[in-house]
Amino acid sequence: MGGDGILGNRDSKQSKGSIPRRRKWVKRRETWLVILGVILHAVYMLSIFDIYFKTPIVHGMDLVSPRFSAPAKRLVLLVADGLRADKFFEPDSEGNFRAPFLRSVIKNQGRWGVSHARPPTESRPGHVAIIAGFYEDPSAVTKGWKANPVEFDSVFNRSRHTFSFGSPDIVPIFCGALPHSTWNTYPHEFEDFATDASFLDEWSFDQFKSLLNRSNEDPQLKKLLQHDNLVIFLHLLGCDSNGHAHRPFSSIYLNNVKVVDHIAERVYNLLESYYKDNRTSYIFTADHGMSDKGSHGDGHPSNTDTPLVAWGAGIKHPKPISGRDHSDHVLRFVDEHLHDTPTPEEWGLNGIERVDVNQADIAPLMSTLLGLPCPVNSVGNLPLGYVDMKEEEEVEAVLANTKQILNQFLRKSQIKRSSSLYFKPFKPLAHYSSMLSQIEDLLSARDYKAAMQLSENLRNLSLKGLHYFQTYDWLMLMTIITLGYIGWMVFLVVHVLQAYTSLLGDIYTKEEAVRQKYNTGKVYLWGCLFMGITSFLLFLEHSPPLYHAYFAMTIFLWTQIFNEHQFIKALWRHLSGRKFNYVIKLLTTGVVSVFILEFLVHSFTERKLYTWCFLVVGAIASIYLYNLIPWRSGIPVFVCLTCWFLSLFTLMPAEIPDNNKLVIASGVIITLIGFTAKWLDLHADGNKYWLGICTHDMKQSRFPMLFHLQALMVGLSSVMVFLSTSHRTEKQELHAIHQLMNWFLAGFSMVLPLFSDNGLLSRLNSIFLGFAPTFLLLSIGWFYLTWPSLGREILQVLLVSRFHLSTGSSLSSVPF
């Protein structure tokens, strides 16, 4: 009897004949598995969009006309793109506040708070939340942020006329197809990240100022400006561009905060002197913040917390408070942060009531101030802490807000009911009509407090109902996708056990093999029948085509698994008969595998885990090598120090400021490492441990000047990074010759290693120096030092692997 590792223990005669056939079968089967795996993961990946990124927009709702008089005739919306709340409210290093005008508004004229944005904290979804009142699903990114993937209602749509000036990426989204709008944008070429982008904000203000000046000579424009229900929108992009280019702690970004404050002051003075009727409302906010790294998009508070200042017609005046009755209630906002911390002391606003809102709440606030219907897809709650209205009008405003959200719920309920074979209604709103009647009765009886409470309760239930229908199919989809992935894993395990172990021959009797072949047709028949019934039910429910694909893929996988039920039964019987130690060994292997997977998952958010990993590996590896290599060779110490030095980088902060000194230092370190490696390559004859990776054939090099050329390019790259950063800091445009030089260094340096010598160390040194210029040109701050550290780590692995090969050891025996 013999075992081939694939077929198990078989008769040697039979094995010799069956091995080639078996190997061909394995090859065909694995080709099919690769194709199936690609299709399966592509289809299941699309389920993310059906589960999490489903559009919240529905059409067919009626407008809810407000039953109160408009507090304002016109509204000014100033959006400082990329402005963080803390950088706006906190003082500078000298104790002076960066936004003196808006700070005086907070203290004397209006209300303030923090507007909480919801991820993705990008410009388009942020502006959609502010102006349209809903949180656009991230799937819009697949269709382009710039254009409207779907039509949606907004405050601009309901206005009499909208005047808008700003970025070509934002303004056309809302005004491009709006007939009652006047708008203009600057060219894309104006967005230069190498300069101070605050001039973009000045451009928007100049356009607005020019509009008012033209109205003095244009009677038709002047008449238009005298209408009510006007919206003036200025998009101020400077903070966003400067935050990306220079990061939010730079002097350029912080100075841009002063620029937008000065623009807000000038806009206010212009309009107050132009109209002289005190019927203008002003709202200043931002679409998202900016992380210390100069990016945005995630849910970190630096990205989600934005300033909100409102003043003018219909806005309450500041309300002094004591430390005990502060209005910072413990509420959960859409950014999933509990607002349970007090206002920072350095903001100097603890004595004034702070009213935080969700970003989508700004849309119903603007609609209420202008006396307009709320956008039909808005999910924002009217923030009563901002509006200055009579008690009766406040109730009417909240009721209009409630009815608008309720209409969305009813529409979604109607759509889902019409397509579901078994519809599960949202029970808390089963008697919504009686609640509406009760509110109207309370209004007639002038019991405004009870009417307000019931209206807010109905609004909260409506929002929960919207979430209910938004996630209506979640359980079904998550279940079928989870079963699909589990089925794929089980199917692969069965294949590996059958193809690459001897289990198939050891545990499978001939009777079981015959029985399984006989039952295969029945299993496939039942699988096809179940798939057909499922597809028919999905068709009756008008489900999307991808739903059919999810179910079909999962049913197919489990049909294949059930087809192997005889083998699985035999495997279970085999494991049950083995010793307990064997089972413990399998469980231990599984636990270790899960631990490694969890370690990798947690390392995405806890980078410090790698620090401990490098420290432990450095210690264990050096002790292990000490038993094989003498300390005088230097290799154990080199391995330990290299690992320990590399462990420092995962302790470094993710926010990386510019540091020109590190640029020069990194270039010098890289060059010194290169010279050291070159010296070792030429003088390693006396050390047998280093000799294995060095060129000991003293023939003339093919390109003697290659090393010096590469070292020169590393030095030039450091100088170019220093010059480019200096130009940007001084708000100067990068010269064309600098750009050409940078591109030349980055591209040409990576080609040079192709001409290096064949020795291991010389080739590694050439690759190390060849990619260093590109790395230096693309790095900032302490990140420059990672390249020389990584180079030493590669050299360490090369040294140890060559030593093991020279001593006949297997590289797999190295503990790292």
Automatic annotation (TrEMBL):
GO terms for cellular component: endoplasmic reticulum membrane. Residues 1-20 are annotated as: Disordered. One of its GO terms (biological process) is GPI anchor biosynthetic process. It holds the Pfam family Sulfatase. Keywords: Endoplasmic reticulum, Glycoprotein, GPI-anchor biosynthesis, Membrane, Transferase, Transmembrane, Transmembrane helix. Its EC number is 2.-.-.-. Residues 248-327 form the Sulfatase N-terminal domain. This is GPI ethanolamine phosphate transferase 1. It comes from Durio zibethinus. The gene is LOC111316650.
